Amino acid sequence: MLNDRQMERYADVLWWGLCTARTSPFKKDDIVLIRYHRPAIRLAEILYARLLAGGYHPVQRMRPTTMMERQFYLLSTNRQLVFLPPGEKELMSRLNGSIFLYAPESITHLSDIDPGKIGKAAVAQKDLRDILNRREACGTFSWTLCVYPTAELAGQAGLPLDDYTRQIISACFLNKTAPVGEWQRVYGNAQSIKKWLNSLNVEYFHVESRNIDLEVTPGAKRQWIGISGRNIPSFEIFLSPDWRGIRGKYYADQPSYRSGNRVEGIRLEFKNGRATVIGADVGEDFVNKQLKIDKGADKLGEFSLTDKRFSRIDKFMANTLYDENYGGKNGNCHIALGSSYSNTYAGDSKKLTRGRKRDLGFNESALHWDLVNTEKKRVTAHLKSGETITIYENGCFVK
User: Fold this and answer.
1) In terms of pTM, does the model score above 0.85?
2) 38-65 in b/e burial notation, b at 16+ Cβ within 10 A?
3) What gap in Å lies between CA 397 and CA 399, rounded to an integer?
4) I need a labelling partner for 65 at 20 to 30 A (CA). Which of 41, 96, 306, 397 fits?
5) Phi, psi at residue 337, to the nearest 5°?
6) What are the backbone dihedrals phi and psi of residue 107, each rounded to the nearest 5 degrees, phi first?
7) Contact assessment for residue 88 and residue 61, using Cβ atoms and an 8 Å cutoff
8) Average model confidence (pLDDT) for the chain?
9) Which pLDDT belongs to residue 343?
10) Domains in the chain, start-ordered, CATH in brackets?
């Protein structure tokens, strides 16, 4: 497990991430929410004390236990599933920062729960997420999150707890005396790659691997973003494409856990922007239900690439934050079904209305499900000039 020195360094990195993700600086009396699972309480205590010492107002909330979460979905009526506690919208409307410490004691305890009930509760929470998205666009809110090692995560990943913990320590630079300096170096390197990608006038990207043949249309007014402090760790560079032009085949060779269900070997075929053919080696029925939770669930909300030169993650971690940032031998690409990210809009995000998003092909959904491929691949950019250039090959950006 993490020792106190490593947790102090983790707190340093999380605060760096929260500040880096926000476009305006934090100031005294800002409100910061700390959400955490029970095993991460010591790290939460360290963060709580630091926020108090900095003159901020920390709000702490422990996530429901495994049993509480099961009881919620087993016993709730329809009204209880969509209930939002009084004051929740007010808090979201005034919140300036949020840190989530993910440390689950189980990730499969909801496997026998009706996915429709889980989806209904998620849809009800969308209003709260929309408030935070608007505040983030205005520069008054930012968020970050991390993983705290637990026996459950290690077991589901097929790793001893010590090995799982070492992956976290290495990925987040907690074995360095100045981990924030390491993150600033990665951040600087990523800036130059994003600048290069955003200088290209691209008609569409073509992703090719053993099991992928996918065309991704970036769309108008888009920008590549990533390595912004919002996730610790994060090595991906991504955009939210125009979903209407997505076509071809995609395959996720990494397993994925969602709502307590393990899914393996997801195969998708896109036509006119929608996933029209859906299959999976394990969990196919669950996948089909997820892609029907709302009108946007079967459309693409994100396209992402990770450079193996940045990421030290080389093992499956049974956690999306780590698996979508996998470095390994070939790096990775991933797509996300469902909601898009407004901050990939290249214009003034404050003016990105719902109608404008619809016109530009930004997808809206209560779902956001990252599906990862770690095969050897090539990504080419087909420019509007007619030229074709390779932007990613052998796990690295080609610049």
Assistant:
1) yes
2) ebbbebbebbbebbeeeebebebeebee
3) 6
4) 96
5) -80, 135
6) -120, 5
7) no
8) 95
9) 86
10) 4-178 (3.40.1830.10), 182-397 (no CATH)
